[in-house]
Design brief:
- Helix content is 69%, strand content 0%.
- The protein has 102 residues and is mainly α.
- It is globular.
- It starts with 6 loop residues before the first helix and ends with a helix.
Length: 102
């Protein structure tokens, strides 16, 4: 039996198992078709908390997710504000605005 060298390897292995590449690809495809992240994740049997947790651990996926959310965001919303977040925007700027407020 092989054991992970450290906790980081175990976190990565768990994230990969919980959200395999095929699920991540399908999620990105749904986002690019204009679905909201909550809806797209739900259709795949996961939730947005899992998505963002995985994105923090698997940085390449996190970069791809942020890029997609930025490209697909509604230009009429005030991004980088709590208002944008409250109107369901989950781009990196709106998520950051919420975290700064907390």
């Amino acid at each position: 039996m092989s054991y992970p060298i450290n906790d980081a390897e175990q976190l990565i292995a768990n994230a990969e198992a919980e959200m395999p590449p095929s699920t991540r690809s399908r999620l990105i495809a749904k986002l690019r078709m204009g679905k909201h992240i909550d809806d797209a994740a739900g259709e795949l049997g996961i939730n947005s908390t899992q998505v963002f947790s995985t994105a923090r651990i698997l940085t390449a996926f996190g970069d791809q997710l942020d890029s997609t959310l930025t490209e697909q965001r509604d230009p009429s919303l005030p991004h980088g504000t709590v208002t944008g977040y409250n109107k369901r925007c989950r781009c990196p700027e709106c998520r950051s605005a919420l975290q700064q407020r907390v």
